[in-house]
Amino acid sequence: MSVVAKTLGVSRSNLHDRLKGGAKPRRRYHKAQDAAVVPLITALVAARPTYGYRRIAALLNRQLRSEGLAPVNHKRVYRIMQTHNLLLTRKYTERPEHVHDGKVIVMRSNLRWCSDGFEFTCWNGDIIRSAFIIDAHDREIIAWRAVANAGISGSDIRDIMLEAVERRFGAYRAPSVIEMLSDNGSPYIAKDTQIFARQLGLKPCFTPVQSPQSNGISEAFVKTLKRDYVQVTPLPTAPTVLGLIENWIEDYNDNHPHSGLKMRSPREFIAAQIATA
């Protein structure tokens, strides 16, 4: 019996109890309070089918705190979601071997803004293209533009630059120089765009060629938008989708939890910064 127990990696007493039928099966651990939390988690998963257990836990605790109730540990949320088959399927993908020079994240807001574009296709074949500006610290989408069946122009980029400065500072020029990180797309490297950026107090910076991770903040937002909004929303025609993008951006700014922001949304994080300033 000792040889068998050693081969199976169990103790002799455990193997003896199993053979004699004396071993009691372990029951799944649960708390009596789980029953009150399960419907809340189920509703959140139904509304946010692409969210993992950590983001679901952040939304759940946000809801509980608003009702004056105690928050729930994320490990408990994981256990409940596992019991009710609500966890996301794990996917493994190899990271592409691109060079990443420097660190995109900065220590406070309005030091570096990042900009990029994305596109997706509607069910009727219409193509939506969009560009945006995101703060590398607080992750808020400050300004954006979207067009149907056309490309993003240098004029569009200059418009969102001006809008971003106006929204953040209520003026036509930033009070101090802000780095403006983007790829080497023609709307960004255009001479008119670079001159206009400097007039606004922005310093144009460009990522190395074939190194999208050098603008990782923007890349992460594009991935989030496509996963959490585009892939789970009906996209019949361009006019319909163009009317939805604003709601997507507002929902992202107001509600989307970020691990880098301690599971707070961009605007929650900004509000907390202002409160402690």
TrEMBL record:
Gene Ontology MF terms: nucleic acid binding
Coiled-coil annotated residue ranges, if any: none
Protein's organism: Nitratireductor indicus C115
Alphabetized NCBIfam families for the sequence: transpos_IS3
Protein name in UniProt: Integrase catalytic subunit
SUPFAM superfamilies, per the entry: Ribonuclease H-like
Lineage, highest ranks first: Bacteria, Pseudomonadati, Pseudomonadota, Alphaproteobacteria, Hyphomicrobiales
Integrase catalytic domain residues: 92-274
Pfam families: HTH_21, rve
InterPro entries named among the record's database cross-references: HTH-like_dom (IPR025948), Integrase_cat-core (IPR001584), RNaseH-like_sf (IPR012337), RNaseH_sf (IPR036397), Transpos_IS3 (IPR048020)
GO biological process: DNA integration
